[in-house]
Amino acid sequence: MAASDHILVVDDDPEICKLVGDFFHKNGFQVTSAHNGKGLQDVLDRQKVDLVVLDLMLPDEDGLVLCRNLRSRSNIPVIILSSRGEEMDRIIGLEMGADDYIPKPFHPRELLARVKSVLRRSRALPDDVSEDDSGALYRFAGWTLDVPTRQLYTPAGDKIFLSGGEFALLRVFLNHPNKILTRDQLLTFSHGREIEPYDRTIDMQVSRLRRRLRDDPKSPELIKTVRSLGYVFSSRVERTESKK
Amino acid sequence: METKAKLVIKVDKDLEDIAPGYLENRGKDCVLLPQALEQNDFDSLKMMGHRMKGSGAGYGFQLISDLGTRIEQAAHVQDRQEIHDCIRQLVDYLGNIEIVYV
User: Fold this and answer.
1) From A20, which residue of chain B is nearest by alpha-carbon distance?
2) pLDDT band at A198 (very low <50, low <70, confident <90, very high)
3) What mean pLDDT is reported for chain A?
4) pLDDT value, residue A126
């Protein structure tokens, strides 16, 4: 964690904002609160934010829509904090691009641990790729990933925003093209942790990454599923040095 | 007269500055909730229950979250008796807890 990581808490309940604000401030974070979608936008327009903690039930806008909009234009990590804790809500939240989902009520210490973990994931790159490709430019199937700027470009040159998790996962694939990678390896390389029983993090992120790469999930060309083993990135990958 | 034993609640030390204020606000809820019930204002009851549910355990008070869940659900179906019971339990709880910061 950097000394002054800035967390934006978006929740219409002032007592949740106070709880998170006070607890995180005591633990070395800078915290700003917003109570609706407009407030979220106002803060993002004015300040640099390292992570957003987002409630789903806001008075002016659906938090899921805000999450999707945020993800479409930035890589700021998002943790959803919501009373809507059903499995489907969690899946939809993650599908909308959230990096984690915590149901209310929550213990602030758990939220703190999750925030640190997401920040670590979004910044710290896996050991096996961080040493040698931090200045790399990857080209594959007409696409380009510029590692220093974290920008993905379509074959037509359009920019595609990736979440921290998607970026880390794509980078692992590009570092190991045409090799079968197990879910465990993918999770370890991209997130720095081991897989747990019933953990679907990698499957969901692969699914999201396929969408970003416009790879048909029913018949994927780039990220292929290898039944009962994992995934393989099936493309020639060219690597040069980025000019950025 | 027999005095009731205090219910000791362990609360995270990092919440020591804000937990008393939170309980003070729940004390205000003990006035606002019956008022809303009296006025059949089930939307307000839903909202207050929803917020209690979301925040109580985070501050260290699991029962407040549990009562909030019940109030929110009861407000949905306009179950006045259940809401009344929850308010009574909330009043009892607030009058009987002793916080220990750990």
Assistant:
1) B58
2) low
3) 86
4) 45
Tell me what the mean pLDDT of segment A237-244 comes to: 83
Q: To probe the interface with B, which of A11, A13, A15, A20 has the most B CB atoms within 10 Å?
A: A15
Nearest to A105 among B12, B14, B56 (CB): B56
Helix B42-55 × helix A14-26 angle, to 10° = 10
Task: Give the DSSP H or E segment for A238.
Answer: strand A237-241
- Residue A158's CB: how many other CB atoms inside 10 A? 8
- A-chain residues within 8 Å CB-CB of B51? 13, 15
- Between chains, do B15 and A18 touch, taking CB under 8 Å as contact? no
Q: Under CATH, to which class is A6-123 assigned? A: alpha beta
Q: What pLDDT is recorded for position A129?
A: 46
Element (H, E) at A105: none
Size of interface A-B (CB pairs under 8 A): 53
Residue A225: predicted pLDDT: 92
Predicted TM-score (pTM) of the model is: 0.67
- Kindly determine whether residue A19 and residue B55, on different chains, have CB atoms separated by under 8 Å: yes
In CATH terms, the fold of domain A136-241 is Arc Repressor Mutant, subunit A (1.10.10)
Taken as a whole, chain A contains a residue count of: 244
CB-CB under 8 Å, B25 with A109: no
> Which of A10, A104, A106, A112 should be substituted to probe chain B, the one whose Cβ sees the most B Cβ atoms within 10 Å?
A104
Domains of chain B, each with CATH number or no CATH: 7-101 (1.20.120)
Question: Contacts of residue A22 in chain B, CB cutoff 8 Å?
Answer: 14-15, 17-18
DSSP count for chain B of H helices, then E strands? 4, 2
Tell me how far apart the alpha carbons of residues A32 and A21 are, in angstroms, rounded to a whole number: 7
Using pLDDT thresholds of 50, 70 and 90, give the confidence band for residue A59.
confident
* Average confidence (pLDDT) over A21-37: 95
Instruction: Describe the crossing of helices B19-38 and B42-55 by its angle, rounded to 10 degrees.
Output: 160
**Per-residue tokens: A191:** 């997130």
What tens digit of pLDDT does each residue of A130-157 get? 446 788 999 999 999 999 988 999 999 9
